[in-house]
Design brief:
This protein has about 550 residues and is α+β, with helices and mostly antiparallel strands. The protein contains 21 helices and 22 strands. The protein folds into 2 domains: about 80-195, Alpha-Beta Complex (Penicillin-binding protein 2a (Domain 2)), CATH 3.90.1310.10; about 200-555, DD-peptidase/beta-lactamase superfamily (Beta-lactamase). The strands form 8 sheets. The protein has a 5-stranded antiparallel β-sheet, sandwiched between helices. A 4-stranded mixed β-sheet has the order 2-9-17-18, with no helix packed on it. A 3-stranded antiparallel β-sheet has the order 1-7-8, with no helix packed on it. Helix 8 (about 200-215) runs antiparallel to helix 21, helix 12 packs across helix 15 and helix 12 (about 280-290) packs antiparallel against helix 19 (about 465-480). The protein is elongated and about 135 Å long.
Length: about 550
């Protein structure tokens, strides 16, 4: 029997099929062919990215190449500021008053050294490290800079400072400087030439100091003016201070000692001190009376040593205004020379048949002469003094104005105040026949090319008093040589015209001593005004200082 075997189909299995989940038989294939669109998109993306990179590389290399070259070079160099030399300040005869003490490095500022310390401290001032506020205002300054903090150093900071330069150092891989060159040259500060005369300044300071010791006082002020242009020839205030303490870096203890000193050594009394001018104001009052035709200058009035005024609201109340002694019959020139209070009460507030100026006119003419105003001197800290009037008294004191207030104003007492500079400048008006100049310390500015800029004199006001009236005032001031302590002026080689003042202050009968004057009387060259605080009488406290200066000045004049 033949057997026929049935053929059976054997299905071949892949190894992974052994473990395949029957439920996933339709999903066992992981590879799918990419579509054509996706391939094109991929190549487009790659091409775009390469294009962007290519364009960026071109931009950096071609367009920004120079800029990055500079930056790369800067990585190999170092830029530093070059400090300019601060300008030097000279007196009128080209005597240097200050020098720069150079530092070891060109990018560090020099420090100032003041040759004459206390003698010129209030004029020159000092320098110190720049403040944050100053730095914000100054585009060309750095944190290392020193700037003017007081005096001329402060007022003429821009002229003296100069401009920084730039130095570039080439650095090698070891950080060593290979070479240096000036990229931007520095511009040194300009030099200042003053009206001030150094020798006269030293004499003024010396005489003030000597007289203060003699009078056993600490505070005084003096100023010397050229009446022809308002130039300040000398200025000193006591007590003073050493401005080198500040410029070299002041110690905290030294600074505290200065600001806590009751005598205020940092205070410039010449321009900031306000004092009753006393009888030094009488030439101003006399000028006003002549200009307003209040009195004939040759008319004699009778001075019994006092005047009595009835209270207009209560005639039974009598006020007496007196002085030290009676002068009997006296006219204007001799009233100025003898400082007769009764005469000036009369022409100021009126008496009997003489009407008097009244406070309105007193204030008007006082302001013409520079009182109650800033004169504009080139120093910081100037004050303007005070000429009181009815509205001021009502506003400040809540009081009415009385005839006694006018009388007091007419002799420089009461609430009236002036600075020594103001007294000197109205004395200059009388000396130069009627011109009020703006006081000026700086005369010339000289730049690095030796080009000089002269500062022209500035006139505040002129011709407000007739010349014939000024001649009367000048005559009265010249007559000081014939009365009292003024007789001591007769041994000078020239004739001095002047006016003493003894101004009361406080409630203890204390007095300031004043003397304001000019010489030679016939052709004035200098005006000297001296104030000795609590110095007693003007004739004995202040006049001797001026006399010694006149004697020295005209004896040493070439």
């Amino acid at each position: 029997m033949l057997f026929k075997s049935k053929s059976s189909k054997i299905k071949m299995l892949n190894p992974e099929d052994i473990f395949a989940d029957p439920r996933g038989l339709h999903a066992e294939r992981l590879e799918f062919p990419l579509r054509r669109k996706k391939i094109i998109g991929l190549y487009a993306f790659i091409g775009l990215a390469l294009g962007i990179l290519f364009l960026r590389a071109g931009y950096l290399q071609i367009i920004k190449g120079k800029e990055f070259t500079v930056l790369a070079n800067n990585n190999q160099s170092h830029l530093t500021k070059i400090q300019p030399k601060r300008g030097i300040i000279y007196d009128r005869n080209m005597q240097a008053l200050v020098q720069n003490k150079q530092s070891l490095s060109s990018n560090e500022p020099s420090k100032r050294y003041y040759f004459f310390g206390k003698t010129l401290a209030h004029v020159l001032g000092y320098t110190g490290k720049i403040s944050q506020k100053e730095l914000e205002k100054c585009k060309n300054c750095s944190m290392l800079d020193y700037t003017g903090k007081a005096g001329l150093e402060m007022i003429y900071e821009i002229e003296l400072r100069g401009k920084h330069g730039i130095k570039q150092d080439q650095i090698n891989a070891k950080g060593q400087v290979k070479k240096s060159f000036i990229k931007i040259p520095e511009i040194d500060g300009k030099n200042l030439i003053l009206h001030l005369d150094l020798e006269l300044q030293k004499k003024l300071y010396q005489e003030l100091e000597s007289q203060a010791i003699k009078l056993k006082i600490k505070k005084a002020a003096g100023v010397i003016i050229n009446p022809k242009n308002g130039g300040v020839l000398a200025m000193a205030s006591l007590p003073s201070y050493d401005n080198n303490l500040f410029s070299q870096g002041i110690l905290k203890k030294d600074y505290q000692d200065l600001i806590n000193n009751n005598n205020k050594p940092l205070f410039n009394r010449v321009i900031s001190g306000e004092y009753p001018p006393g009888s030094t104001i009488k030439p101003v009052i006399a000028s006003a009376a002549l200009q307003e035709e209040i009195i004939d200058p040759m008319r004699f009035i009778n001075d019994n040593g006092y005047i009595k005024i009835a209270n207009p609201y209560d005639p039974g109340v009598i006020y007496t205004f007196s002085e030290i002694r009676a002068h009997h019959r006296i006219n204007m020139p001799w009233a100025i020379a003898n400082s007769c209070n009764v005469y000036f009460y009369t022409i100021s507030g009126g008496y009997k048949d003489i009407k008097g100026l009244g406070i309105k006119n007193i204030k008007k003419y006082a302001e013409y002469f520079g009182l109650n105003n800033f004169l504009g001197i080139d120093l910081p800290g100037e004050t303007n003094g005070l000429i009181p009037d009815k509205s001021w008294k009502k506003r400040v004191k809540s009081e009415n104005w009385y005839i006694g207030d006018t009388y007091n104003s007419g002799i420089g007492q009461g609430d009236i105040t002036a600075t020594p500079l103001q007294v000197a400048m109205y004395t200059s008006v009388i000396a130069n026949n009627g011109t009020l100049y703006q006081p000026q310390i700086l005369n010339k500015i000289v730049d690095n090319n030796k080009l000089s800029t002269d500062l022209t004199e500035k006139i505040i006001r002129k011709n407000f008093i007739d010349l014939e009236n000024l001649k009367i005032i000048q005559d009265g001031m010249e007559k000081i040589n014939q009365v009292g302590f003024g007789l001591k002026l007769q041994d000078l080689p020239i004739t001095v015209a002047g006016k003493t003042g003894t101004s009361q202050f406080g409630n203890e009968n204390k007095t300031h001593a004043w003397f304001t004057s000019y010489a030679p009387a016939e052709k004035p060259e200098i005006v000297i005004t001296i104030l000795m605080e609590q110095g007693g009488f003007g004739s004995s406290g202040a006049l001797p200082v001026a006399k010694n200066i006149y004697k020295w000045y005209f004896s040493n004049k070439e």
